[in-house]
Fold:
Amino acid sequence: MDAQSLNTHKAKKSLFGGGSKQFFIFVKKEWLHIWRDRRTLFILIWMPIVQIILYGFALTNEVKNSQIAVFDQSNDQATSNIIHEIDASRYFEIIKYLHSYKDIGATFRQGKIRLAIVFPSNFRNDLLHTNSAQVQLIADASDPNTANTLTNYATAIINDYQQSLNQNKVLPYTIKTQLRMLYNPELKSAYNFVPGVMALVLMLVCAMMTSIAIVREKELGTMEVILVSPLKPFRIIIAKTIPYLAVSMLNIACILLLSVYVLKVPINGSLFLLIAESTLFTITALSIGILISNGAKTQQAAMFTSLLSLFLPTLLFSGFLFPIENMPLPLQIISNIVPSKWYYIIVESIMIKGLGFAAIWKETLILVVMTFVLLGLSIKNFKIRLA
Amino acid sequence: MGKEKVISANELTKKFGDFTAVDKISFEVEKGEIFGFLGANGAGKTTAMRMLCGLSLPTSGLATVAGYDVYKQNELIKKSIGYMSQKFSLYEDLTVRENIRFYAGIYGLSDKQIKEKTALLAKQLSLEGEEKTLVKSLPLGWKQKLAFSIAIVHDPAIVFLDEPTGGVDPITRREFWSLIYEASERGITIFVTTHYMDEAEYCNRVSIMVDGRIDALDSPANLMKNFSANSMDEVFLQLARKAVRSE
Structure:
């Protein structure tokens, strides 16, 4: 018994207000669980990497090197200039020169092309003598978004050519639109996906993994034994989450390195601020995980609750796949209670727009409040006593 | 006997709304005693035990455990007791040594003490050379004996055992009980719930709960005499038949 009193004496002096050694023993044990379960660890580390690569390269909104066909009935200087411009752009690749209208339909039906450009005969003559020539763009609209983008790109190229013709002439009235794509001049979709994937991965790793880890102890019956021990329930919870916090930090590092060096998405703002905000969001996610573990009786239940209440809302409501502005009002309102939405805005502002804390203090405050409420709820609900 | 009282309960009661799970139970347990806590499922055993372990606050009544008050001093109670649940409470993905280190560590034993304890336990349980084995690859009987030894690794005043021998073969049960006797000889009080009536006969004294009350409390021999029964089984059945409530 004297060993025990000696220990309590020592503990009183420690930084954590007693029992910090016990606390670290707990963290170490939790780490061993993760380390022993190599398969899960592997998934935890690889998931964000695969997601970044997937979203960055495969699931892209950009239209690059779309295969198109040209039916040029005029074959003059003007048409060949335009065709050259189109072929030279990185959006299009001309794979076929057609010789009859019939060919157009046939080529579309083969599924080889997404756009056909038709120049009528006498294109240059019409242009020079009647001041007006026509060109037809035929797009495969089974995918409306792509069709729209492609016709826009083609129109833009043709307009450019038209402007070059009019360069030295004074036109009576002209309005020229000047476009400048701020923050993302090349319109790379990775700019969109990186913040989204960060939100998604942190939610999954922290919330889902912690909820499963806590429920596992309940299932095993070890939770009861730990609760009977002198460890404070609050400490137990914190100790269980710390290793996942560490894994999340590793994930953030991986994602940022990949995005900067592979996807060429810059970090325009402060790296320190970005990491601080990510830590805040991680804590939000951890408290959600604890809250889920309070309600769930089995590991499967914890997993499905996490997937349904975190994965889908993050995917749908953070704004990285579907613009929130386009949603019906009720869904827009719902999106406000999804923490990922605010984190997404924060990451986008810091990374892409290079904004400082002054621009995101409101979002940060929302996350802080959410975290306190969730943490309060989850600790209150963490059943120390049966009554 | 005049020995030191380690647990004393006086009209201890627990209500959940209208339902009285534990109804004014009073009893005392002496130091080093093996106290059997019997009752059918739903009789209130677990609830009573949780109150004594400091996991649940009583609705009314008084109780002290290891000299500490269950209302105010449950942090001190927690330091003085060990607990083993029916689920064995070991981490299967940790090794024997890691389990010992973890549980000894959270009770505040020093590194030196943990080292000594690990060596001692390995010897006692003939687990030498198995310290680095994952618990999941140990046979059930060993797991259980290890779980008990770990529950008393910090030399608590009292150890609470919640149906510790469920699903174990008779030989292992006997070995398990010899560990319990050893602990009791070292002065550790044993508070055990069980379903097995032959195990009840191993206890110094036995209480039988029916519908939240303690209907009988005595040594197994006296109980059999008073109920003119040949075995604890018969005593238990006579009492359990009176139960009004079921699970």
User: Anything to note?
Assistant: DSSP finds 15 helices and four strands in chain A. The mean pLDDT of chain A is 84.
